[in-house]
């Protein structure tokens, strides 16, 4: 292998293009292992640099900033004004009108007494108002977490016969959800919720909405003996095998109110000035239906009602937490799953509305707030709560300015708990079912699914699997399968990285994918490949096979003018290599030599360059002319040698 | 935002450099979803293009090639010559001299009767000779798979009291290992074994070698009541709590033979011409120690011997496969783990020696061969077998030319089974222990571990965790933890991708990492960032936070001459985006506008470009001048605008 003299001149002409001098490939300035680890830890766990604002501030200011960081209420309360309060009051009353009927309904969805839903709309919002940094989130129970908690706990306790046990298990699961959420925030592992992709969530939400709606058929049809299972098949069996239990009065009432709610929702979405219609409809339905039942004594005609509810505020429940080893496994698992799911909804809602208003949400900080709120909740007769997406949207549209709207809502709920509970005795269950269906129907987002289909077929597949898994297998397993597939897809992208053959765009120094650019032409004598992934243990075998195939194809090609003599490997898109990757590069040097090829590396990034240098100390596989800063410089430095061989 | 006229001239001067015309960014030629899926499937599962050789061949030739593909023996047998046979005969006899003592020893390691080890060195090598494509692999039982099978099956059956059940479970686990291996090959999922990185395996092997050696203390010290557990702590307790059971005769004999074997191994490795010394030592030790026991009646002095072994070949065992549901779970799990581990050793050995001789091994094809060999083995009283790395090295060095050396070895084992079994009655167990220790000691590869430490600290950590996990927790769990960490590391690389700030190398069109290249200088008015990973749901939050921080840092920088006005995002190293990634890019356009910045994308790769175009149809977020082929062209097209704003 003859090596060329490297050009030392300032600029040399190739064709019509001025070629600058050949530049040296450099490694980044040396850093110790500890420094590097420190930087990597910072990027992994403190990528948002939460302590930036403290830099260079005097001590007292640091203390104030620290207090504001831990308790965001101190950020807005000192400058709170009456005009802000007016906005918050309206927003707070608006979300309270939703929170009361939804709270009762979602608690029933979780197989819990209805009053627990009101308790959960009272204490957690107050805690969040002190600790949370979102101005839009409306805190309280949400449909999906309620569904999951209800279905997971039902595996170990029967909510109808073991009511007290079931309730205590729910508090305990909430406690673990809170512990888990707060730990994620404190350990700065918030990125774990990023592993639920948009496509996964879309499919999951739609599936869960259908499961939730199907569960409501029990209330809507007035069936007394309903299956305990969640998935489509047993529910539909229950519905059609119990036609004798259908109550026509209930069906009529249910369908009427469902239609009312859906029409109000539709009108409210189409006409922003009729927004209050969709917001007020649930409370109006509750009041109207309660009046109907009361006036017509409908409870005697087969319409089941909530029944007597005890007045009064949350009682302490820390002594009811159930750490018995018989249930511990299920309770921890339930806490984990509901914790992650409710966190995902809360953080996503917070981020969405924050970006609409142009402020930032610190994900890890929010997790601590949500976690603490659930821990406090579990000790005060609440089950798992988070920021509800739909109610936060209402809060945002109703003009909330600060977390004060949550306080207003909580106080409204408190008044309800203290004085208005007897009024709910005649509220029919069928209306609660209709409210739930009208609320969750918005989770089925067909237009977005269609956009995903247009953009990325694999993402759509993940979405579909998530959806089908939830409705046919189970809520938890459907989600687990979808997350598994998403992660497998990412691993597959690393395992089977793109390797691209580059060609020169004539008359330039630019080298681009020959498949993508028709103008990019093969350079005689050179095979130029770019690897588009970290080179590590999962893909060295593949990259090796793929490159070998490329060389052999190139060698066996007929009618070619010049044999390839150089393999140029563009490492611009290889962010990292591990030891397997380095061994592969060392071996590749040898195996290309067997084909009579000289291997040239172009533009290794910082870390890759460092490791190449270190490996070169051990194996000295880098020749004098085997590293270039650009493809153009590598081709330029060796092209005259290719021309020689042709003569 | 004022847009510049795009230069239409052939070349425009910037500084001393000729700037070519601005080039259009193109998408790859359109392909249907089915075509794309097909291509992706091909790259994922048929990356080695196994059917390439059939292309354009006449039908008869295709049939012959197909037969040779399925049964590689037809490739070499027709042209087999006497001179090749001479080499294979020597190699075959050499590996037989190792296979016989090791077979007996490894069977004992798996808590199986010693004769099973010999059976396993007879049938599987014959099957492999017909189906396998390696010329170097020496087939038979191996230490690590034996250890794992022994320890996993011991959880459900006691090998001392339930000998027959244990044996039948071992056959069944072997059957499942074979089924699993063959399925991986047929389904072309061979890349699964790539998930065991070099570093993981190194730590695992070293840990397993120590566990295996510690187990041999039972034989070496002559202890009768030894713990059933594997990890370091209980074994050392057993050793030191049972000092009364130590037999000095056994200890003396054990240490002498171990020293002999280690010296022979050392000399054989240092002096290639004394290679036979290390190869012959185990058989010599067996013969010598058997003679000593026989002559001095040492079995009466506390030295335990193998005892009577039945002469005769393998009996059928398909009727002994145990599919009882009590054991099925454990047996399937054992088959899975031993199947993967033995496959990893076999394929890695095959690839290593193939690359030394310059031929290719088809991983998926080999998996089918190994799988079938184990299925046949499980029906003929064999337990799990694969290509042993150490014996393959001996086979290679002894000059084997084809798989015929395995046939020679198998026939030698057959003769032993038929006629020489009575001779083993007096072989002392202590020598078998010494042979095992001398064989596995080579698995502790400190120099490679040191190289890994020098090259990549995180890889070293994985190696260390794997090692410590195996010796302190358990063989399977240590491996599982190490694999988990390796995969988590890859996910973390995607979750926290490198984002690099680029600067211009003065006097060129080259833009490089400003941290790596001191000559790379900031371009006034531009913030140029390169993302080095696929943009997907796991990292959009991070990338968003990181870019925001960068913009804010840049904005708040003091003493700067020119405000940044452009954010250039170099997408050259972004191989793919998913729907979350596309949403992020769409949102980024909006959020940069809030900072008064214009967002420019540079060089999106094929798939990314396609998706940008499709997203643009939905959201039309790409402006007229927001896509360039190179950073230089983007900077050039907008730099005069930056200069204007300064005036």
Automatic annotation (TrEMBL), chains A, B:
Keywords noted in UniProt: Membrane, Transmembrane, Transmembrane helix, Transport
Cellular compartment(s): Membrane
Transmembrane segments: 112-130, 165-187, 199-217, 246-263, 275-296, 367-386, 407-425, 431-453, 460-488
Main location: membrane
Cellular component terms per the entry's GO annotation: membrane
Any GO molecular function: secondary active sulfate transmembrane transporter activity
Keyword Zinc applies: no
Domain STAS: 516-638
Topological type in the membrane: Multi-pass membrane protein
Family annotation (PANTHER family): SULFATE TRANSPORTER (PTHR11814)
NCBIfam families tied to this protein: sulP
Protein's UniProt name: Sulfate transporter 3.3
Organism field: Canna indica (Indian-shot)
